[in-house]
Amino acid sequence: MKKCLENVRKNVPLVHNITNYVTVNDVANVLLACGGSPIMSDDIRDVEDITTICGGLNINIGTLNQNTIPAMLLAGKKANALKHVVLLDPVGAGASRLRTETALQLIREIQFDVIRGNISEIKTLASGSGNTKGVDADVADAVTEETLEQAIAFVKTFAKQTGSIIAVTGAIDLVADGNTCYVIRNGRPEMGKITGTGCQLSGMMTAYVTANPEDKLKAAAAAVVVMGLGGEIGYANMQPADGNSTYRNRIIDAIYNMDGETLEQGAKYEIR
Amino acid sequence: MKKCLENVRKNVPLVHNITNYVTVNDVANVLLACGGSPIMSDDIRDVEDITTICGGLNINIGTLNQNTIPAMLLAGKKANALKHVVLLDPVGAGASRLRTETALQLIREIQFDVIRGNISEIKTLASGSGNTKGVDADVADAVTEETLEQAIAFVKTFAKQTGSIIAVTGAIDLVADGNTCYVIRNGRPEMGKITGTGCQLSGMMTAYVTANPEDKLKAAAAAVVVMGLGGEIGYANMQPADGNSTYRNRIIDAIYNMDGETLEQGAKYEIR
Amino acid sequence: MKKCLENVRKNVPLVHNITNYVTVNDVANVLLACGGSPIMSDDIRDVEDITTICGGLNINIGTLNQNTIPAMLLAGKKANALKHVVLLDPVGAGASRLRTETALQLIREIQFDVIRGNISEIKTLASGSGNTKGVDADVADAVTEETLEQAIAFVKTFAKQTGSIIAVTGAIDLVADGNTCYVIRNGRPEMGKITGTGCQLSGMMTAYVTANPEDKLKAAAAAVVVMGLGGEIGYANMQPADGNSTYRNRIIDAIYNMDGETLEQGAKYEIR
After folding, report:
1. DSSP count for chain A of H helices, then E strands
2. Where residue C142 falls among pLDDT bands split at 50, 70, 90?
3. ipTM reported for the complex, 2 dp
């Protein structure tokens, strides 16, 4: 994974983000922290030009609206045509019809390299994609040691069906293609008390996959480890009066300062 | 007020925010800090579903536009129909016709549990609501010890007319229904040098009122105390080189770390 | 430059920002830090009223869209009619047709007091404005000691053509009208690892020029020095585990704490 990190710092992948306005600043700063470079653009007349000059595209439906949905479709198709990396973060799929339907439309019309969400969002996509044969719709609502086997089978099956790397993040993170699954145990529960660690991870993962075309699966898994390890290092740096707002800064700071050795030594994963 | 804080931490109220893009990230983080959970959504096709799964709705007109105004109306009416808590933050009412008219339309078409603003915004609403009988339009432009009596009478009258809890924040904060007014003296003047402490308070107040349905007035007042006390504790934690940007983080951190005992001991209020 | 800083703190210029949603919160906080006051508004029905009550208008095309472009034009013309200060930050001009064409339309239809960008953005405007006589389109892509003479001549010529102060920021910063060029060497390369230091500077520069109508050129240059010196002081305050996210806060903090003496002593510039 050391090599994946170093490739990001060396190649400085330019990432086009169509993302929500809640966490967009943190997404930009974490992209800079990890060694990438961010551009944000969401107007239908702007996105094709911007995606063309980038290496990767990160589509996040967190605060989607009637103007940004067509822009997401247009940008994604352009990125596909250019063979750029495209990632989907289906924020809130399952929470509203618009989000669920938009996420499903996006995976129908765009070929994503990676789809990254929590287990509930990914299950929504799997059961809603009209292609549930082989997908166990009864997979548990959290990935725990007890439900791990079942969850791994689920993400591999959904990866096979979509042709995308599937990343499910939670207490235990899974990153899989049809054959191989990284099971990752980095991170801290306190990260859930910060808005946008998932959005940040999606931005950073787009940079990692873009800078490591020869092994996209490992690169996606490396991004998950960097985020989780950043959370651990940031937590170790907390002072007595610190809370979630300072923790946010300390995580991005830890990612900024992370080198390949630290990553290699701190990574906690197995391959299944 | 201890109980109000503990109910937020226990119930984890989910708050739907239609809010400005300037301070939205801080609103999300302060909601997490106090024990609530934030969702942001502002598209007309999305807001009804999102508000349905939430307990409270926070409408902030800070950067309103032609797409979000209809979404605010739709979401507010849905929240009313579901008997969810709804709060209005009329940012900039009085500063432009669009903001004034939108705020007035919102209070005509939606029954708010709470309206929270500065004295100038609240006066604009009171004099513009076409229902100024009994409202002293000449109430002073700042709530000070000298103008306190008059201001208390004003907010109680406006609360009676609207059927809403009225929260006026400034050097002295007032939170009143038609009969009872909390006069709160927590806070620091330096909080005015941070963007969005008012927006943060509105988000947090929505969580407090949602988690304390049996005493909404006290819950709204408790949120004001938490914000002000957070400002005091955050200020006490300032280091020599710190300025307004770090102060912002320290306030949210203080709210994250606040417990019921600290709140009870630090609260400075009287009931009038 | 001491006087310029003190005028901002004394006059508290109110600045209307039509800016991107990526860095908008930092723009608001840096405006407060330097002594100004921010308002954000971007709806076509809102911007004329808001600009009317402000002293300056900051137009930043970072995440422009079909709704905000007409608002930019409307607000800019209103500010011109009122003889308010207007600044353009042509973020990404040259990166997409929409951005380039919008920036060019803005400088055709609005008389800007200041245009601030990086050398690539400013060159795009100079060569695209259909008025390139005398503008050396072959000016180098970075302002260095080697290319300084040529770059100074370029910005002076473009300033003369547009009637605007031209501010080109990079490793060496240039702020010029048709006759005089401030060459500024404050700042730190690490500032490039934070999103939005350019956007912050544009907001702050609008406040500086607004508060110093008697010497707009010096005021624009002073804002560049304040930003760069803030970057130097913030860097000196960095602790071992700090990274780009905390650095962002430390720069704004340094601007918050900066007084005229510190500015005068830390300023590194020459006039050419």
Report:
1. 11, 9
2. confident
3. 0.95
How many residues would you count in chain C? Answer: 272
Interface touch A50/C246, C-beta < 8 Å:
no
Which chains neighbour A (Cβ–Cβ under 8 Å, 3 or more pairs)? B, C
Q: By the 8 A CB rule, do B32 and B9 touch? A: no
User: Do the Cβ atoms of B257 and A241 come within 8 Å?
Assistant: yes
Q: What is the CATH number of the domain that holds B143?
A: 3.40.1190.20
Smallest Cβ–Cβ distance between B243 and the set C42, C50, C256 belongs to: C256
- Interface contact B65-C42, CB threshold 8 A: yes
Q: Give me the tens of pLDDT residue by residue for chain A, a chain 272 residues long.
A: 999 999 999 999 999 999 999 999 999 999 999 999 999 999 999 999 999 999 999 999 999 999 999 999 999 999 999 999 999 999 999 999 999 999 999 999 999 999 999 999 999 999 886 544 444 556 778 899 999 999 999 999 999 999 999 999 999 999 999 999 999 999 999 999 999 999 999 999 999 999 999 999 999 999 999 999 999 999 999 999 999 999 999 999 999 999 999 999 999 999 99
Q: What is the Cα–Cα distance from C39 to A172, expressed in whole angstroms?
A: 43
Domain of residue A227: give its range.
2-271
Closest in A26, A67, A253 to C66, CB measured: A67
Contacts of C244 (CB under 8 A, 6+ apart): A29, A32, A33, A252, A253, A256, C190, C193, C194
Query: What distance in Å separates residue B50's CA from the closest CA in chain C?
Result: 22
Kind plus residue range of the DSSP H or E element containing A38: strand A37-40
Q: Chain A residue with minimal CA distance to B24?
A: A22
B to C CB pairs, distance under 8 Å: 93
Nearest residue, CB atoms, B252 vs list A23, A65, A244: A244
Chain C residues contacting A via beta carbons under 8 Å: 20-23, 25-26, 62-67, 92, 95-99, 193-196, 241-246, 248-249
Gap between the Cα atoms of A253 and C243, Å rounded: 4
Q: What share of chain B is helix, strand, coil (3-state, %, to 5)?
A: 50, 15, 35
Tens of pLDDT, residue by residue over B88-109, are 999 999 999 999 999 999 999 9
| Phi, psi dihedral angles at A181 (to 5 degrees) | -130, 125
d(CA C175, CA C121): 15
For A249, which of C64, C66, C245 is closest by C-beta distance? C245
B42:A63 CB<8 A:
yes
A46 and A70 Cβ atoms separated by less than 8 Å: no
> First CA to last CA across chain C, in angstroms?
17
Q: Identify the burial level of B138 via C-beta atoms within 10 angstroms of its C-beta, where 0-12 means exposed, 13-18 middle and 19 or more buried.
A: exposed
> Is B243–C237 a contact, with Cβ atoms under 8 angstroms apart?
no
pLDDT digits (tens, 9 = 90+) for C70-116: 999 999 999 999 999 999 999 999 999 999 999 999 999 999 999 99
Give how many domains chain B has, as a whole number.
Answer: 1
